[in-house]
């Protein structure tokens, strides 16, 4: 049969896309290479935009939250530590559980799910896209590639990324309850890099991220970060690296009737490299566009996500040049902790803050 929409990849972008397409009345199939549920390396912190997108998708967030953070410690290269605290504002989830919940909702909307499907290529002829797979072709009126960083669909569309980062991350048993409700953020030694400790009940997600062009330094930072925290990577449940890619301004997100969403499109926030909210939102946009008219997708992405990516680039430029100054500002400037909480919880956004005269002046001085 020929489906109205085929979606490749059952992460947040793919599940959101499949559900949106089905709710728009399209016959939809979701293709996934792995068997579900599967482990996915991810920090798992849900910022305000992600929380809203999860709720919009119909997921009962309370059942997924492993921890809810209200206390954050900041360090700069392991030193100058300070801690701030408020009520819980940053829920933590396991990606395998979040992805499974999103796929269940897609199935409830009428999506057919096929696992163990490896996609090999795409061909569009006479308004029908043929997805070549090892188990035979799948045909659809439109296809959404949501197959992650290094996407085959992204290569087909011609996605260009001008920021590539290396993330090193481990899932470790929590040694005790000292990290309950408590996150650590460390500004790292590689320009633009940072490290984190995210609590998830009886486990911790610990990692660092920085430019792939300085991969050896990022790996050394990761080893030193774990050592300073007194954590043994030999005890890790999962340990490894992955690449994140940020699309260049003007890079395509569609070629004909093949659309890309989430990491496959290089859609994530350049400074923090936060991707869940971008995956959920771009996935929903792609699913609706694939079902109703792919031509609308490019403008929808630019309108919804473009300003956040521009602001993220500016923030990264300032942070990469002046990480110590950023640390000092967050620590000592009145109102900065409250602003941090409001941005993370979704009460305000980076683009909105960059519109403020005082912020614009500070950013100009610091070269962002």
What does this structure look like?
Helices cover 36% and strands 30% of the residues. With 368 residues, it is an alpha/beta fold. The strands form two sheets. Strands 1, 2, 5, 6, 7, 8, 14 and 15 form an eight-stranded mixed beta sheet that branches. A seven-stranded mixed beta sheet has the order 4-3-10-11-12-9-13, with helices on both faces. Strand 1, helix 1 and strand 2 form a beta-alpha-beta unit. Helix 1 runs parallel beside helix 3.
The first-to-last residue Cα distance is 52 Å
Low-confidence regions: none
Shape: globular
Mean pLDDT: 95
The assigned structural class equals alpha/beta
Instruction: State the major sheet.
Output: 8 strands, mixed
CA radius of gyration is 20 Å
Number of contiguous helices: 11
Strand content: 25-35%
Number of strands: 15
Give helix and strand order, one letter per element, not per position: EHEHEEHEEEEHEEEEHEEEHHHHHH
Helical amount = 25-40%
Care to give the gist of this entry?
The chain has helices at 12-23, 48-56, 95-108, 152-157, 215-229, 276-292, 297-321, 323-332, 336-345, 350-354, 357-366; strands spanning 2-8, 28-32, 67-76, 79-92, 112-115, 119-125, 128-133, 138-145, 161-173, 182-187, 194-200, 203-211, 238-247, 254-255, 258-260. It has 368 residues and is an alpha/beta fold.
Labels describing this entry:
single chain, 368 residues, 30% strand, alpha/beta
Which secondary structure elements does this structure contain, and how are they paired or packed?
Blueprint: E1 2-8, H1 12-23, E2 28-32, H2 48-56, E3 67-76, E4 79-92, H3 95-108, E5 112-115, E6 119-125, E7 128-133, E8 138-145, H4 152-157, E9 161-173, E10 182-187, E11 194-200, E12 203-211, H5 215-229, E13 238-247, E14 254-255, E15 258-260, H6 276-292, H7 297-321, H8 323-332, H9 336-345, H10 350-354, H11 357-366
Parallel strand pairs: 1-2, 1-8, 2-5, 3-10, 8-15
Antiparallel strand pairs: 3-4, 6-7, 7-8, 9-12, 9-13, 10-11, 11-12, 14-15
């Amino acid at each position: 049969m020929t489906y109205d929409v085929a979606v490749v990849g059952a992460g947040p972008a793919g599940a959101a896309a499949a559900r949106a397409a089905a709710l728009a009345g399209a016959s939809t199939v979701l293709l996934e290479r792995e068997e579900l549920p599967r482990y996915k390396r991810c920090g798992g912190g849900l910022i305000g935009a992600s929380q809203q997108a999860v709720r919009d998708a119909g997921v009962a967030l309370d059942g997924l939250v492993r921890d809810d953070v209200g206390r954050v410690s900041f360090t700069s290269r392991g030193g100058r530590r300070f801690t701030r605290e408020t009520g819980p504002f940053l829920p933590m989830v396991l990606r395998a559980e979040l992805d499974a919940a999103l796929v269940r909702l897609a199935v409830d909307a009428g999506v057919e799910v096929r696992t163990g499907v490896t996609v090999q290529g795409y061909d569009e002829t006479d308004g029908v896209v043929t997805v070549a797979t090892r188990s035979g072709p799948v045909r659809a009126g439109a296809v959404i590639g949501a197959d992650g960083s290094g996407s085959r669909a992204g290569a087909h569309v011609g996605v260009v990324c001008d920021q590539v980062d290396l993330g090193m991350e481990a899932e470790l048993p929590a040694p005790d309850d000292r990290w309950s409700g408590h996150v650590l953020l460390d500004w790292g030694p590689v320009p633009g890099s940072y490290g984190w400790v995210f609590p998830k009940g009886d486990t911790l997600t610990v990692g660092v991220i920085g430019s792939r062009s300085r991969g050896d330094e990022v790996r050394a930072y990761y080893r030193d970060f774990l050592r300073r925290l007194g954590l043994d990577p030999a005890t890790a449940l999962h340990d490894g690296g992955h690449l994140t890619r940020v699309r260049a301004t003007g890079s395509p997100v569609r070629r004909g009737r093949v659309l890309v969403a989430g990491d496959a499109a290089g859609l994530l926030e350049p400074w923090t490299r936060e991707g869940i909210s971008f995956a959920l939102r771009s996935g929903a946009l792609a699913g609706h566009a694939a079902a109703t008219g792919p031509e609308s997708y490019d403008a929808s992405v630019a309108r919804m996500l473009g300003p956040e990516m521009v602001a993220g680039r500016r923030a990264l430029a300032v942070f990469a040049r002046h990480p110590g100054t950023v640390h000092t500002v967050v620590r000592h400037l009145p109102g900065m902790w409250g602003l941090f909480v409001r941005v993370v919880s979704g009460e305000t956004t980076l683009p909105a803050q960059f519109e403020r005269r005082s912020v614009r002046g500070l950013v100009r001085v610091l070269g962002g």
